[in-house]
Structure formats: C-alpha cells, structure tokens
Write a structure and sequence with these properties.
It comes from Thiohalomonas denitrificans. Belongs to the FPG family. InterPro entries: FPG_cat, FPG_N, H2TH_FPG, Ribosomal_uS13-like_H2TH. The protein is an alpha+beta fold. The chain has two domains: 128 residues, N-terminal domain of MutM-like DNA repair proteins (Alpha-Beta Barrel), CATH 3.20.190.10; 120 residues, Helicase, Ruva Protein, domain 3, CATH 1.10.8. Helix content is 29%, strand content 20%. It contains seven helices and ten strands. It has a four-stranded antiparallel β-sheet with strand order 1-6-7-5, covered by helices on one side. Strands 2-3-4-8 form a four-stranded antiparallel β-sheet, sandwiched between helices. A two-stranded antiparallel ribbon has the order 9-10. Strand 3 and strand 4 form a beta hairpin. Helix 1 runs parallel beside helix 7, helix 4 packs across helix 7 and helix 6 crosses helix 7. It is elongated and about 60 Å long. Bound molecules: zinc ion.
C-alpha cells in the first residue's frame, strides 16, 4: 500500500512524465466511486487544454497544479501507481484516469482495487484542512512530535498511523519506524521517556529518508531494515538474528522483533 515514500516516488514520476505538456483529453474508466465530490465533467473542464505546472505532496496525497486552474489531487489507496508511455493508448486494465497529452504521450493512474481517490482542490492547504490531516511527517519538528506524543498518547502503532495526527505513515512504515527505534507496537507513547521520544523521532526521519533514497523498493533499502524481510519464511532480525513476529495491533498486522522491541509492562 502506497505510503509517504512511495507517493514521493510517484511525485518524481509525475514530474518526469506529466509536467508542462498540454492535456489533449482525459479518459476516466470505472472511477466513479473514487471521485467523491467531483465528477467527470468537472475534471474534463479543469484539465483538458491545460498543463500540469507543479507538484506537492502531503502525507499520502499527491497534488498536481493545473496552471491557474486549481489542483488535481490523487490518493493511491491500496494499489495505485502511475503508468506512462510516449505514444499509443494506455492499457485499459485498471487505468482509472488517463491524461493524453498533445505530444502523443500519456500518463495513467492505475488503481486496480479502486480504493484510492481523485479530487479537485482550489489549494492544497484548503484540501488538507477539509480532510483534517495532521502535519506531514517530514515537516514535523522534534518538539512538535514530542508534544504530540505527550498530549495524544495511545499505542505506538495506532498513533503513528493516525493521519489526523501525523500524515504519511501506514502499516509497513510504522512497523519499520518502531523496529528501528526498538519500541514495541503496543507501547503507550504518553509514558515514553524524553530520550526515547527523541529516538523515535530520529528513527522516523531516518526511515523515511532512506526509503525515499531507495525509491521505496524493498531490495534497495538499508541492510538493517525489516521491510525486505516482512512476511518471508525463515526471516532473521538483522540486529539479533531472532525471528520477527506478527501480532495484531491497532487493527492491523504488525511485524516486530520480540528481542529488540520488548513488550511493555
Ligand atoms: Zn531482533
């Protein structure tokens, strides 16, 4: 499922393949339930004959500036990504929105399970406020993070994945952040000491930065990451050689190392 690092990579794809080219026409296919407040007609009107001129990401949302015509907003749900080509037609399978450019190239939003979203916004700020999203993980200061932990508390995994408190982390990266910080997914964060709050903040920034540098590809991630080992049989913890375990935490399956991340008392 695309999380902050994946969406940052998609932002790079959009910048490389979708910018400053006039959109000849768009095609929407089976996207009805992803459109929310917008509709096909509004999307056509805003996009056709215009160019995308800039990008912005907040949490798991990607924004594309449509000249002076507002912003196109995409959420990738469980399975979304971009396909692009220099000529011809986009594969009709699962491509819910295709931008056909006047130069013959195209950019397609592929979303097989249709759990993503396509929206229009006047500004990213307005959209973020309406959605009630918390600050982006990469824009949050250490002191604001520390205050958040003390004021909101709750369990570690639940807080890290709550988009209204902190935008960007989902199931996979919240596990990685907790693994790197040596914190059990069920630890109550309001009881965490100052030095461990700092360690958690640093682990979060380190994980996001390294994942973006690896273009969110598990096999390119640092050797001590849990992500490439998730769900593998005979996986070994890179720190202690033990076997990572899966538990249910905050309604999701969390992977962790019982040795490195001892259960809270
Ligand atoms: Zn371990």
């Amino acid at each position: 499922m695309p999380e902050l690092p994946d969406v940052e990579v998609y932002k790079h794809h959009l910048e490389a393949h979708g910018m400053r080219k006039v959109i000849d026409h768009i095609e929407l296919r089976g996207a009805d339930r992803m459109l929310g407040d917008t509709d096909t007609r509004s999307l056509r009107k805003r996009l056709e004959g215009h160019s995308l001129t800039g990008t912005f990401r907040h949490g798991k949302y990607l924004f594309a500036h449509i000249g002076g015509n507002g912003w196109l907003v995409l959420h990738f749900g469980m399975t979304g990504y971009f396909e692009y080509g220099d000529d011809g037609e986009a594969d009709p399978q699962h491509n819910v929105l295709v931008l056909y450019f006047k130069d013959g190239s195209y950019l397609a939003f592929n979303c097989r399970r249709k759990l993503g979203a396509i929206a229009l916004a006047e500004t990213p700020e307005e959209f973020i406020a309406n959605k009630g999203l918390g600050p982006d993980v990469t824009a949050l200061s250490e002191s604001d993070f520390s205050t958040l932990l003390q004021e909101r508390g709750g369990t570690a995994k639940g807080l890290l994945m709550n988009q209204e408190l902190l935008a960007g982390l989902g199931n996979v990266y919240s596990d990685e952040v907790l693994f790197q910080a040596g914190i059990h997914p069920k630890t109550r964060l309001d009881r965490l000491e100052g030095s461990r709050r700092k360690a958690l903040y640093q682990a979060m920034q380190k994980v996001i930065k390294a994942a973006i540098a690896a273009e969110a590809e598990p096999e390119r991630m640092p050797d001590d990451f849990l992500i490439p080992r998730r769900g593998l049989r005979n996986a070994k913890c890179p720190f202690c050689g033990g076997t990572p375990k899966r538990i249910s935490a905050s309604g999701r399956h969390a992977w962790y190392c019982p040795c490195r991340q001892p259960e809270p008392e």
